[in-house]
Specification:
Length: 247
Amino acid sequence: MPNLPAHLSVDHAAGLPLQRTAVAPRTATTDTGTGGLVANGPIFVGTGWRITTQFRAYCLSPTQQYTVTFPTQALKDRYTPYLTAAVAQLVGVGVNLTIGGIETPDYTTVPPQGHIQYGEAYRPVGTAGYSQGLPCYNTADNSVWGGYVLIDTEYWDGTWTISTVKLKNTLVHELLHTLGLDHCNSDLNSDGTIASYEAVKDPSNGVTPIMTSPNGGYQDSRAGTLTPYDLNGIKQLLANATALGVA
């Protein structure tokens, strides 16, 4: 079974200076519309979205080609229908993302640049019913390099019951982790604890972002697509590239 306990492999972190100038975190409040995002500096958190700065992924390169690959044709056939709509949304906001072909992953190191490798493993995080999305960063500029997705095999062998809606949202949720989005949960009730499912809801429909942990997103026929809050996070990842001078 693949064992990917960390978001960054030792090999990929090698060569980093022991001390480096950190990019100061900034916040932004955004609505669910198409505008309102500013890019006069890197921004890492906003209403309904958060960027994985703790793993040094600060931005998405607007010119890097990102490609989803699979270890077998059977897995490509299994997952492509669940990813197609979300990939189209991501392309629509400027991510150079495509669903590619077959490639054997090497879980001892990072994938080839720009590759997001989907696979399966039994309980990849050690907990029943949970899957894992693992982003890697480019050590030269802190843009998203690519990553791995490991989907729990229990979804398919009948040992874990998961609704179609949750399955669709989960498969896209893990993809968004590899593109630099973190869980968007926040302490809305100010009790000192950020709880499961505790995340801002779209005031127009009461839907939480798909990046809500453990299960967010649309609960109807739109399941498996990004909400406006999620799209705002992706837009900011792209805007951060401009702010940081990343090609």
